[in-house]
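Hi everyone,

Forwarding the result from last night's run.
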Amino acid sequence: MKKWLIASTLIISLISCSFAFSAAPLDTVKTNVNSVLDILTDPKLKGESGKKVKGQRIWAAADKLFDFVELSKRTLGINWNKFSQEQRKEFVSLYRTILKDAYVDKITAYTNEQVDFTKEIPISDNMAEVQSVVTGNKGNVSIYYRVINKGGEWKVYDVVIEGVSLINNYRTQFRDILGNNPPEALLDSLRKKTDKK
């Protein structure tokens, strides 16, 4: 999650429209993403010595932003019902680790790209999409956060980068494994990937 841009006058008008729904989802995501950017630009965490601490702090911020149970449930889709309570709990933990391993290095490679939050769009009474754009040397990247409100808190359950949904990406991979195998086969595959055998 290292991306994001600026968008000027057009964005200002879009933001104005978004407040007709609710500022809460956009503000929640923006606050958490900005906290990650603060970590990435902290001069005390530069170089190899600060890399580990930076990664730990970023993931702590991600824990506040993401609903990993909802993310897991939606990634597995109908296959979620095949998992026992214990298997679900283990899957959430393993999946979280997979995502951490896949994205922390990419995020810590952040090089002062600019991030702009453009608008939020209601999906239902308790779900919304917060749209942002990252501007870097290689151009603009759109990143959309899909959030759900649980107990008054907005949490991210999917991230769509340049039209590619995190959920859909992993769902395809997991569905292939679960097509002719029990949940334990997927869990075993994830244990091996995360060294949690």
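Residues 1-23 have pLDDT under 50 and may be disordered.

Cheers,
N.
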